[in-house]
Amino acid sequence: MTFDERPRADERTTIGPVIELGHVTDRKPPFRYAAYTRVQFSETDAQGVVYYGRYMPYFDLSRTEYHRHLGRIDLGGADFVMRAMTVEYHAPARFDDLLEIFVRAERVGRTSVTFEHAAYRIEDDGGDTLMAAAKQTLVLIDRDTRRPLEVPAAYREQLAAFEGVAV
Predict the structure, then answer these.
(1) Tens of pLDDT along 92-150?
(2) Under a CB-based contact definition with an 8 Å cutoff, are residues 42 and 53 in contact?
(3) Sign of the C-alpha dihedral, residues 43, 47, 53, 58?
(4) CA 10, 13, 17, 18 torsion: positive or negative?
């Protein structure tokens, strides 16, 4: 097929299979899911370590891949928004470190879900070192009114089935 014969972007119906960047794991109970990422140069500060604010995208990546793995539930006109987050930093990650970011649904409230995260550097000898740990509470809101909504039963059931416990 020549360049001129290829379908244009607006003519394509599929782009192929979805690639999941995360994986189911039993390495760090009670976590059952994690995603890998590698520290990029632009994520480091003048001291050569990962800038503390760059951990938030790592946590977002793991949470997004977690939901991709579970199969996203259509929330209609609702979205989860960040309500609160706490982070504890344990060790510095550096350029080119391989990180494994664990995630789990720790608690499902009436209108919110709390996720727990742990970011580990994978060592060359197969060991690992805890870099940072976080908890994030997201609230389900109506997109139009910006008011909290109850977390749907189907979403609760989805999380509980994967986590193997009532969340």
Answers:
(1) 999 999 999 999 999 999 999 999 999 999 999 989 999 999 999 999 999 999 999 99
(2) no
(3) positive
(4) positive
**Active-site residue numbers?**
45
| Strands, E assignment, the chain | 22-24, 33-38, 78-89, 98-108, 112-122, 128-142
CATH class belonging to 20-156: alpha beta
Which residues face 132 on adjacent strands? 89, 119
Residue with tokens 């001129």: 4
Tokens, residue 114: 């709390």
- Given a contact cutoff of 8 angstroms between Cβ atoms, the answer to whether 62 and 34 are in contact is yes
CA distances from 137 to 22, 83, 98, 152 (A): 21, 5, 26, 16
